[in-house]
Amino acid sequence: MKKEVLSDVATLAAPQLERTHCTRCNGSGTRGGFACMTCEGDGAALTKRGQAARAYMRSLLVKRAQEVTVGDVIHFTVGHLKIASRVNRIDILAGANIRVRLHGVRKKTGDDIAICLPIGRPVSMAYTVTELQVIRAKVEAYQAGLTKTGEVSRKPRITAQAA
Ligand SMILES: [Zn+2]
Prior knowledge:
Distance between the termini: 22 Å
Number of strands: 11
Strand order of the largest sheet: 8-9-10
Structural class: alpha+beta
Bound molecules: zinc ion
CATH topology: SH3 type barrels
């Protein structure tokens, strides 16, 4: 197995989500001198298809605390630092409110790190650039297979195979 390089901040172009001219601000990004609330100053808004693809993308990038498994690489928050580490142990803390404690190792110092989260709390997954490229291709293929209203089309369209 090749050693995996983990970067705290993976740099990669985001998936191309389908956008359209924002009708609220007519594509200008501003309304009455303020940033348009609908498109957040972008001048473009996600189409229904783009919104559905973004929701799908988020489902790939974030897991609920109880869905994390040993071996997942997640972002640990330590103080104000965000540290990517592989989860090496999981404790379930029973009580009035069940909590999940995820353990990892801070690579730089070799220190054990842990975060304790209530069930349902979203955990941001830390992917390698290669993994993110796969996710990007998945999201774009998913979007291409959606109908105009953002539904998964019943007849899956064959899209260009990602190499
Ligand atoms: Zn707008």
